[in-house]
Amino acid sequence: MDVVQVSSAPRTVEEIYKDYSGRRAAIVRALTTDVDEFYAMCDPEKENLCLYGHPGGMWEVTLPAEEVPPELPEPALGINFARDGMNRKDWLSLVAVHSDSWLLSVAFFFGARFNGNERKRLFTMINELPTVFEVVTDRKPTKDKSGVDSGSKSRHSTKRSSDGQSKNNSKTVDEGYGDEDDEHSETLCGICGSNYSSNEFWIACDVCERWFHGKCVKITPAKAENIKQYKCPSCSSKRGRQ
Question: Which residues does the UniProt record annotate as the domain PHD-type (predicted)?
Answer without folding.
Answer: 186-238
